[in-house]
Amino acid sequence: MSFKSSDDFRRQKELDEARKAGLAPAELDEEGREINPHIPQYMTNVPWYLNQSHPTLKHQRNWKEAAEDSKQWYDRGAKVFQATKYRKGACENCGSMSHATKDCLERPRSKGARWTGKHIAADDKIEEINMPGFESKRDRWNGYDAGEYSKVVERYEKIEALHKEMKQREKVDELYGGTAAAAAGAAGGADGAAAAAGDGEGDEAKLDEAEEAAFQEVKKRVRTTAGGSTGSVRNLRIREDTAKYLLNLDVNSAYYDPKTRSMREDPQPNKAPQEKTFFGDNFVRTSGDYQAWQALNLHSMQSFDKGQDVHVQALPSYAEMLHNSFKAKKEVLGKKSAADVLEKYGSAAAKAEGDEAALLMGQTEHYVEYDRSGRVIKGQEAKARSRYEEDVLLHNHTAVWGSWWHDGAWGFACCHATTKNAYCTGKAGERAAAESAAQMVANIEARARADEEGRRREEERRAASTLDNSHLEGKSWGEDAKAELQLDKDRLAAALERQRRETKAAAETDERKRKFNSLAAEGEEGVTEEDMEAFRMVKARGDDPMAAARRGEAAAGGYDLLE
Fold it and tell me: Where are the annotated segments for Disordered (predicted)?
């Protein structure tokens, strides 16, 4: 930490207080991240041995890398090298370098590989698995191949298939045995037939009972008053529907409240409705008088918006009375409207067959004339089907206006004309319209290509003009700074000496007698990089606070300069 004067320390304290109050932006570390101004200074200041000049919290972070468990496991039975002769230090029994003689798992030979030099065992693959984590060290299933369980599943399926086959054979044998007994009874007489039939029915009943017993009865010990005895207790859950909390075993599915035994949401939202028997208990919320209560609320809100002083919670009886009055008036108006319609247009369903026959066979004084096609010529004219003209063909068209639609415009389907007052031109007009559209598209594409070609030529012209004037850039406008500038030390020293002489001569020379400076006077080379560097080194800057101190002046801005 560098030394600070009392003024600097006071300014730093004021800045810290402003940062804590949110009046000044927070300080940034070397990575551009903000430092919390409320963190104590002894935590943000870097120790002297880290050579950090800016506050940072990098030294407070955990620099130790987190140990990661290895994802690999031992390669069981893998061999790495097969030797052809015995090697020094190998197992004397089998000749492998992977273990010692006392740890050899092979059958002890009468003469080991050390003395025979034959049948040398291959070296086993020795791996060192890094498991620094607590859980990985104690994982009992680490290295277990889940594919091995498929063998267990396959074996179980084979056993189940054999069980089913055996049951099927037993059932067939029992059925055929009952049929044979019935046939023998029929040959013996009526009594024998009845007995055989009874035996057959008994066999079927026994079979059904056996099947039910296999799925319904559970043997368990039942406590009695006399001590303990073994009895048969039926599982009452078998014939019932599946419990609602067992429909979906996902822990993130619908929540089941065990206290109220309710599951409000649907546990199977993605299942087809016709395949579900339970849709959640929320249906209770919309049953009963819920719809009437919703209608009452809606009517109260609409009445309040229209200026009626009514509220369901504040005046429930008044709100219900208004709603009932509204429903009664609405019903009266509905009946009146229906009566008006029936009175005006009549009801064909209400007429009796006798009345219809009387009307058909009746006579009237109303005179109407018809033509051969059935159209009214004189008398009661038929009403128009629409207020607009229908099926009216204009200007020799064979289709009505609006029978064709293309690119947002209506037209005629016969000639594809989009002007209503245009005359029909037939297929020729249709071809002309298609050719006109194609020509328009071609013109647009040609115009786009011409514009693109013009832009390309303009870019080439500008590029050529830039290349022609490239030899003037270094002399007149300067050049782009190079990434790594290489300067000649001797030429730089000469340029410094020449710059100092020119500066001194310019200071001693009268301003009115100074000569005109020109780039042409510098020779063919012009201003070199060494000249520019010397000019920058010798140039005096007025905004430099240390310039006065270097010149030996007393004006130091009110600060004591320490060296």
Answer: 1-35, 448-475, 498-563
